[in-house]
Design brief:
Elements: E1 8-10, H1 20-33, E2 69-78, E3 89-98, E4 104-110, H2 121-129, E5 133-137, H3 159-173, E6 184-194, H4 196-206, E7 215-221, E8 241-246, H5 254-261, E9 268-273, H6 290-305, H7 309-318, E10 322-324
Helix pairs in contact: 6-7
Length: about 350
């Protein structure tokens, strides 16, 4: 990934879509018309079950990693939910494990439409090398592993439950005797997503179908709100979120991304990437915004998953950003900018 060469300015909050958008918005209308497709949080019977909130535990000494990472791929299969008309859901998942002694915080990352976990290997490796276990599943009907004509945007209603299932499986691996024993602190989980994966992340945080209270913070990339059956989004959680939005995004209009972020009630850092397009700042394709995304996201993860208040202040250095949900504090090189 290359160092940024363009300026980064700030916005206060906000989200929408085009291109990829036409298919996604059309599918969204179909989803609203059929609640029977709801993925929900399944207990294996089709019933919706609530997430188990995290409980307080004594402080844990977290591992910081040794600057290396190892990636392994596991295939998790959920027999309780279908893939279209086919029983079961197969979820090949990349797991990045830091070198050194754990436990480490864990981040779950969701790719976008026609994406895959491998497209993020540079960013996810950077997170893992900094001391995070990173888990990146591949969704069965929205990844580029299947022909374009077979992809189903409406399968997003299943993706929040996919993330829950994968999270459960990886945490099980971290229990005594498991392949990842002692490497994950289950009380320090973050979630992130790009585009349709970002829409899936919004649902995991703020939609009654899918809220998973185990996650402590989130990074949203070029994302929007996609309707889910079973109710409306409820932005009533004060939850730390870092939002990246590019002004040259032709898939999800920049203002639409800001509109979604504006609904967030908790501490929110919204970073505008000037002339940033939809996916390059986050995927392996070189972008002038690569280093800002790496540095700012790591500062955010350190602040929210490691309780490092100084790291959150560092966001003002790594990117020109306005924090919402708390009074903005001027910093060198930072200016306040509000888009309307």
């Amino acid at each position: 990934m290359t160092a940024p060469t363009r300026p980064f300015r700030t916005v206060s909050r906000s989200i929408r879509r085009r291109g990829l958008a036409a298919a996604i918005i059309g599918a969204a209308l179909l989803v609203l018309g059929s609640t029977s497709a709801c993925g929900g949080e399944s207990d294996g019977t089709g019933a919706s079950v609530p997430s188990t909130p995290s409980t307080s535990t004594p402080p844990t000494t977290l591992g910081t990693g040794d600057g290396t990472t190892t990636m392994r791929t596991e295939v998790f299969t959920d027999p309780s939910r279908p893939t279209g008309d086919t029983p079961g859901r197969s979820l090949p998942t990349d797991i990045y494990v830091p070198g050194g002694t754990g436990p480490f915080p864990m981040i779950v990352h969701a790719h976008g439409l026609a994406g895959n976990s491998g497209k993020f290997s540079q960013l996810l490796s950077a997170w893992s090398e900094a001391g995070y276990v990173v888990v990146a599943p591949n969704f069965p009907l929205t990844s580029d592993a299947i022909p374009a004509e077979q992809r189903q945007v409406g399968d997003i209603v299943q993706q929040p439950a996919d993330l829950r299932f994968v999270t459960d499986q990886v945490l099980e691996m971290s229990r005594p005797g498991g392949d990842l024993a002692g490497l994950i602190d289950p009380e320090r989980l973050g979630i992130s997503g790009l585009s349709l994966g970002g829409a899936t992340t919004y649902a995991k945080l703020f939609h009654p179908c899918c809220v998973d209270e185990r996650f402590r913070s989130a990074v949203i990339m070029s994302a929007f709100l996609y309707p889910q059956p079973g109710g409306e989004f409820a932005f009533d959680r004060e939850f730390p979120v870092l939002v990246f939005a590019g002004t040259a995004d032709t898939a999800i209009p920049y203002q639409a991304q800001l509109d979604a972020a504006a609904k967030l009630q908790g501490p929110t850092w919204t970073v505008t990437l000037d002339e940033g397009n939809h996916s390059w700042p986050f995927e392996n394709t070189p972008s002038p915004h690569d280093q800002v995304v790496v540095d700012t996201s790591l500062a955010f993860w350190d602040g929210t998953l490691r309780d490092d208040a100084a790291a959150l202040e560092q966001i003002r250095v790594t990117a020109d950003v306005v924090e919402t949900g708390a009074p903005a504090k001027p910093a060198n090189g930072m200016h306040e900018h509000h888009d309307h």
